[in-house]
Each structure stands twice: as structure tokens, then as C-alpha cells.
Amino acid sequence: MNPKHKNTILITCSAGLTDYVRREVEDLGYRSGECHKTGIEVEGDFYDAMRLNLYLRTAYNVLFLLKQFKCDGPDELYRNVRNQPWEDIISPQEYVSVVGRVNTEFVGNSMYANLKVKDAIVDRVAGKTGSRPDSGKDKNNVVVQFYWKDDHCWLYLNTSGQKLSDRSYRKIPHKAPLRESLAAAIITATGYDGSEPLVCPMCGSGTLAIEAALIASRRPPGLLRSNYGFMHVKYFDEPGWRQMRIEALKISKIRGGKADFKPARIIATDIDAEAVEAARKNAMTAGVSHLIDFDVCDFADTVIPPGAGTIVMNPEYGLRLGEIEKLQNTYKRIGDFFKQKCSGYTGYIFTGNPALAKKVGLRTSRRFEFFNANIECRLLKYELYPGTKNKT
Ligand SMILES: C[S@@+](CC[C@H](N)C(=O)[O-])C[C@H]1O[C@@H](n2cnc3c(N)ncnc32)[C@H](O)[C@@H]1O
């Protein structure tokens, strides 16, 4: 396969994040194509796929289309997959993992289809080279993905391997951490660009503060990862990848403190000392700890820098009754804190519980829809000017 050959690249994401992915893709200079519920298409070659892996903040996987075909049964699936010149892509020493999504009457479950695809790939490589690649569930090597809908099948190389939201900086997750891609989308939704302070009380393991620091310093999150699916294919251009990383580092304002633009302070606090310790360590792993001031305190005691800025909070939203009763007071206190101490700021609360959100008692100026692990959530925006209106 020629890595300069252009084809469709499908960028997957979680439900509700396609607009954020589209914006990122367009900012990177690509024309966005068809948009699905959990993905967006662009045209590009294998190098574009590598570049997208390096830069995208809100996506899950970058899938490079190998072929699509009409498929009206498992034998047809096997035959078409086996026709692909896998020996040009996968060396027999590699390990292959197959991920399938099946929505067709031709097979009852995706496991059988997965097996067919895996057999076809391995049989083809063995037939051409004399040895069979290993295969299994580990997604740290070559990952082949297919989607079989009705009588049509799309066959992709998953160039990411593991999800891009697993940035690898969060060694200590603590409780109820947000996915990194969701945290990046939340920060993007606030319009934050690093020019004004950002305050994250209730920071937990620090995901919002760390993603904000990566955005403020223009540091592509992909620099943090050392393994991608694309590195395991035969035509992976290692010097080309190294060059791409060097260019990404150059545009990252974080580099050596030589930047002409220094992001404003980011403040992250939590009442739980262990959470703050985890956040601090995670920020160090992400290379952004020098941009974040950490503190252990009740959210209401967080020191707010004077002037304008952004404050983002992700309080627990509780599932059990006892918890919810306790949280009602927390949400009310957040409203008081916003009103009394955060004047001049724009406040945001990310929550999955609308009834609790009402307890804040302030008028929202905007609501952004998100999903967090299938729970419908909202990012609520509050303009906190002096004398902020109570909700009427
Ligand atoms: C849902 S978690 C935040 C998760 C975080 N966004 C992350 O990605 O790791 C809520 C956090 O609020 C903190 N918290 C609860 N009550 C607090 C209070 N009164 N003051 C400050 N932090 C509090 C908890 O310790 C917990 O870390």
C-alpha cells in the first residue's frame, strides 16, 4: 500500500462531540466531510492520519479506510477481507487485533464476524509469507476495525490503536474522573484560550486543569503518547513521525519557557488532599505542572485572581438519595460562591443532574449538551457580573 494514497479517514468520538471534532479538524486545515452521530469523515493519506492522531483533543480514534464492499454473508466477508494485500501492511511478527461493529441480518453477533475477519487477515499473511501473525484483544499493536451494516462493509486500519482520550498522563485517576477528550471539549466550549486565568475548584484528578493547560500552551496531546496503531504497520515512516513531533513541539508555546505568549495562571483546588496530590502528579506527567497552582481547600475558599477569567466546576452529581440530599447544599453553596466571590468571571458547572443544578439559584446564560458515560449532562454557563441576577 502506498502511504501517500488518499482515502476516507473516519474520526470517531463520543456522542455529542462531533461539533468539537469538526472544529478541530477544520482548524488543522482539513475539509470535514460526512458527519455521523459519533464520527466525522475527512479525506487524507496515511500521513494525515498520523497528524490527526498527534493533534486531535476531542476524538477517540482515527480510522483509515482500506476498502469497502458489498457483503451478504460471512463467506463474502472472509473472501473480501482476504483479498486485501495484508502482507504489505502487517509483518508476520506483528500482533493483530480485530474490532467489529455489526448491524446486519447476515450474522447473529459480532464475535463470529470478528473471527472471520481475523482468520482472513492471518490466513492471507500466512499464505504469502509462510508464518502467521499472532492475534488477540490487545490494542497496542495493529488494530483492524470493520463496520458491517446491512449488506455493506467498511474495513479500516485503526491508526490510533488505544483511544486518543487515553493520553497516558493520568497515572492516578482518583474518583469519577472525566474522560480527557470530554474535558478538552468542555474547556473548548468555554472559549478558553489561556489569555485569562482559569480556576478549577473541585479539580479531582485534575483533568480539566490539565487539558486547559495543554490548550493554553498549544501543546498537542499526542506528544504525550509513545504508542499508536500506525507505528505497527510495515510502511510506518519513523523519521517522518519524528519530524512531525518536532514541528508540533515548535508550535507548542510551552517549550523551554521561550514563548512570547505565557498563559495566565490556572488554579486547581480540591477539598481532598489525595485528589490534589493525584492532580499534581498527573500534571507533572503531562508536562504542565508549572502552569497550574494547586491547593487543598473547600471550593469556597479558592483564591480567585482579580479581574476577568473563567471558573469551571465539576461537582459530583450523585446517584443515591442520601448523596443527592447532601449535594443540594453543595450546589446552593456553589451559587453563593459564584455570586459573592467570582464577580467579573464567567462561571461554568458541568453536571448530569438538572434538579441539583436548579439549586445553584442563578440564571444560566447558555447550556451546552454533553454525554458522560451515557448520562446526559449539561455545561451551564453563568455570567457573574456584580449583582448577578438570582433565578426568577
Ligand atoms: C466529580 S469529581 C471531579 C472529577 C474531576 N473533574 C476529574 O476529572 O478528575 C468532584 C470532586 O469534588 C471534590 N469536592 C467535593 N466537595 C468539595 C468541596 N466542598 N470543596 C472542594 N472540593 C470538593 C471531590 O473531592 C471530588 O474530587
Describe the structure in your own words.
The protein has about 400 residues and is α/β, with parallel strands linked by helices. The chain has ten helices and 15 strands. It has helices at about 20-25, 45-55, 75-80, 110-130, 180-190, 205-215, 240-250, 275-285, 320-340, 355-360; strands at about 5-10, 35, 40-45, 60-70, 95-105, 135, 140-150, 150-160, 200, 265-270, 290-295, 310-315, 345-350, 365-370, 375-385. Helix 5 (about 180-190) crosses helix 6 (about 205-215) and helix 6 (about 205-215) runs parallel beside helix 8. The longest helix is centred in the C-terminal third of the chain and has 21 residues, at about 320-340. The termini are far apart. S-adenosylmethionine binds near residues 177 and 204.
Name a few traits of the molecule.
392 residues, alpha/beta, VC0802-like, Rossmann fold
Question: What's the gist of this structure?
Answer:
This protein is α/β, with parallel strands linked by helices.
